[in-house]
Amino acid sequence: MSFSRRRVAAITVKELQDYRHNRFVIGTMAVLPLLFIAAPMVQLLTASASVASSKLDARVGLSLLYMLLIPAFLPSTLAAYSVAGEREQGTLEPVLITPIRREEFLVGKALAVAGPTIAIAYAIFGIFLAAAKLFANPVIASAVFAGSHVLVQLLFTPLLAGWSIWVGIAISARSTDIRVAQQLSIFASLPPLGIVAVMQFKVIAPSTGLALALAAALLIVDALGWRAVAAIFDRERLITGGRR
Amino acid sequence: MSSQRQTLSGATRRLGAHRQDLGFLGPNGELATSGIRRETAEPAHGPPVQPVRCGPRGGLYDARVDQRASVQSSSASVPPATRPGVSAALEVRGLTKRFGERTAFSDVSFSVGHGEVFGFLGPNGAGKTTTVRTLGTLIAPTSGSATVAGLPLSAENGSAIRSRISIMPEAPGLYLRLTVMENLRCFTGLYELDDVRGRIERALRAVNLLDRAGDSCGSLSKGLRQRVALARALLNDPAVLFLDEPTSGLDPVATREVHELIGSLRERGVTIFLTTHRLEEAERLCDRVAILSTTLRLIGRPDELRQRLFRRSLDVRVRAPLDDPRAVLGALPEVEAWEQTPSGYTLNVSDPDRAAPALARALIAANADILSIAESHHSLEDVYLELIDEDVEAKRP
Question: Is residue B55 part of a domain?
Answer without folding.
Answer: no
